[in-house]
Amino acid sequence: MIKKIDKLFTKGFTLIELLVVIAIIGVLSSIILTSLNSTRGKGADAKIKSELNSLFGATQLFYDTKTTLINWNGVCSDQTFNISNIWHSATKDGTTGTCGGGGSAGWKVYARLSDGKYWCVDYTSSAKTCDSTVPPAGQSGGLWICQTGTPYNCK
Asked: Is the pTM value of this prediction over 0.70?
């Protein structure tokens, strides 16, 4: 009878062993979740960059349809070449932001990245990261346009 009881208790894990396994799983899952958050931010940044980079081609089509020389008027509200929808979808939180540029001054678009810096695209096909202090107007987490000074370019 005693041998049967010993065999019954020797099969399986002790409470300490189970707690250690649960603690290890908890630590590993927290490490994985932390790395996933940075990956999500990088993915959102890649979306913003891709959307804004596609603006250059669409705005060139817009520009080619103009009958007057060097005319960017209406570039931000254009629906024919989907320009308005492209820069609206580039925002992380769905805000519309603002758009600027016109006449012979060109256009420039900023979008805020997850690290607080801004991705800039302009009518000269320049695309680069700018410091967080560059955009003077716009909405946090949304689209930014540098409205001060002409020409509108990412310098």
From this structure: no
CA distance 65 to 153: 22
The reply to whether 153 falls in a domain is: no
Cα–Cα dist 58/64, whole Å: 10
Range of the domain at 23: 2-144
Q: Quote the mean pLDDT of the chain.
A: 69
Supply the pLDDT for residue 21.
Answer: 94
* 150 found inside a domain: no
Q: What is the 3-state secondary structure (H, E, C) of the chain?
A: CHHHHHHHHHCCCCHHHHHHHHHHHHHHHHHHHHHHHHHHHHHHHHHHHHHHHHHHHHHHHHHHCCCCCCCCCCHHHCCCCCHHHHHHHCCCCCCCCCCCECCCCCEEEEEECCCCCEEEEECCCCEEEECCCCCCCECCCCEECCCCCCCCCCC
Give the chain's domain count. 1
